[in-house]
Amino acid sequence: FGLWRGENKMSRFASRNLCVIQGYGEPFMEVVCRDACSGQGVAKMLALSLLDVLVSIDWEGKWMSHLLTKGYLETMVTSLQWEDKTLQAVLHPKPENLRPLFLYESKMSFFNRVALTPQGCQKLVSLIPSLSECRFIDARPSSHASVTAWKQSDFFPSVVTRYHQLVLPLLRLLLCVLNSHGSHQVEARSKVSGFVLAHSDVFSAMLKSHLHPDNTIAMATLQELETVTALIGQCGIGKGLESEVPLATALQRHMLALFPVYCCHGNWDGLVQEVTKVAEREGEKVERLLATEKTLVLIQKICANLLAYCVAAMLTQSSEFASPICQIILTLDLSLALQGPGYSREVLSSSLPPSMGLLVVHLRECVESLGKGVSSLSLLKKKLENITSINSEELKQFTDTSTMEALPLAQQQAIAGKRLRELIRVKWQQTSLYHCISLSLTHSCSLLSLSTSILPSLYKLYMYLNAS
Questions:
Q1: CA-CA distances (angstroms) from residue 84 to 100, 101, 144, 185?
Q2: Cα gap 350→346, rounded to integer Å
């Protein structure tokens, strides 16, 4: 099936396939939907995969309408409560089988597809409270658990990996719902806030695990943190939380405590090195250059999430619809702006909120890195354009030398070109640094009357933005 619209060969092929399927009428719809709801094993997975594709190519929305009017979508979502015990059993050190996990992944993939349609998204918003009842979300392995929780066996992924396979698709579904546009957006933010507060203990544990200096930081934990900070940041701080002020305040405190780690550009290189060392220690095959860039993108996203959360909190507290959760977000301390970078996680023992000087330091360093990133991206593009003229020494930077030496030069160049395109794509993602800088600038504008040391950085920032 073609998975996109447009006047091209694949879209015409998809339309013809859909016409053939529609010819079987409602009886065929019933068979597929029933298999997706109450089928067994492989039949259920195939039905869910088929629905995923059909919803994506059915421009008229007939399949989505059938799922809603007949109550099949609601049945699928509420069935997660019935499967809760089974999904918790998947997190045992040695589960009987992983079939429930594979079925769950197929179901969440379908839900994420449904959330992209206006009718489906609106229905999912009304079903978020039923998702809050699922307790497998709270079964997160402790960061101080035995090594077996983090170690992959010959037959099963590690417990932590399985937990991420369960929880991250669900959190991304909620993010998809939050990012939708329509009259239900305010209701969605309220329902998702309720979901987060219903599982505040596990969300607090996810945030606090990055504050302990002895905890390991790996790619998987960074992906978890990026998703969690994005979800909490987009929930907003609204009215109607009077009964949940202690829980919401605790989450806010943990979010702000991450500031000195992820919003201080001087720490990023250390975090990247730690993630790379963990991957190599666990025996993973790491393409160091590409892995470094991907890790840096994740750290940038976390930074952007934390800054966006801080901006939203400050705007909410200053508005006439101020939240009952009012705290000092940043202290008026500029001493860090006069010191060098290098916050460590031990600094987080302080009970004080992060200082505004931290944002000044972050702005300065981000402006410098932005210039280097633009130059690096231009250099990579030139190398890709002249891939056929790159010598063997330069090819070794983008290929695995242990296996590539025996290949013909043309094949080595083709593989290097593929790696270069992937590296350029990841480097391009780092333009999200603009977002970090603009948010830092939002906070730092108020410092202009207090410190003129920020003016050179601001001038450089405007020069880069104008040049781009």
A1: 10, 11, 25, 28
A2: 9
Q: Give the whole-angstrom CA distance, residue 68 versus residue 58.
A: 15
**φ, ψ (nearest 5 deg) of residue 66:** -65, -40
Query: Rounded to 10 degrees, what is the CA torsion of 100, 101, 103, 107?
Result: 130
DSSP code of 386? T
Q: What is the pLDDT of residues 1-53, one digit of tens each?
A: 444 444 567 777 777 888 888 788 888 999 999 999 988 888 999 999 999 98
With tokens 């015990």, the residue in question is: 85
Report the interhelical angle of 245-257 vs 185-198 (nearest 10°): 90
Q: What are phi and psi of 331, to 5 degrees?
A: -90, 150
**Residue-by-residue DSSP string for 284-337:** ----HHHHHHHHHHHHHHHHHHHHHHHHHHHHHHHSTT--S-----SB---GGG
Say which residue the tokens 């405590």 belong to: 257
Please check whether residue 54 is in contact with residue 36, taking contact to mean a CB–CB distance below 8 angstroms: no
In b/e form, how buried is each residue of 74-105, taking b as 16+ CB within 10 angstroms? bebbeebeebbebbbebbeeebeebbbbbbbb
Let me know: does 206 contact 140? Beta carbons within 8 Å: yes
For the record, the structure tokens of 342 come out as 């290098």
Report how far residue 24's alpha carbon sits from residue 99's, in angstroms, rounded to the nearest whole number. 31
Q: Nearest 5°: phi and psi at 334?
A: -105, 10
**Residue tagged 């972050």 (tokens):** 362
Residue in this structure with the two tokens 């806030």, named with its chain if needed: 193
For residue 355, the cross-strand partners are 331
Q: How confident is the model at residue 465 (pLDDT cuts 50, 70, 90)?
A: very low
Average pLDDT over residues 222-247: 75
Q: Give phi and psi for 244, each to the nearest 5.
A: -120, 20
Please state, in angstroms and rounded to a whole number, the distance separating the CA atoms of residues 378 and 385: 11
The secondary element (H helix, E strand) that includes residue 86 is helix 84-89
The two three-digit tokens of residue 256, written as one number: 């702000």
Q: Residue 331's beta-bridge partner residues? A: 355
What is the DSSP secondary structure assignment for residue 354, as one 8-state letter?
P
- Nearest Cα to 86, choosing from 179, 184, 162, 169? 162
Does residue 299 contact residue 262 with C-beta atoms inside 8 Å? yes
The model's pTM: 0.79
The pLDDT, as a whole number, for residue 90 is 92
Distance CA(323)–CA(326), nearest Å, equals 7
pLDDT at 141 over 90: no
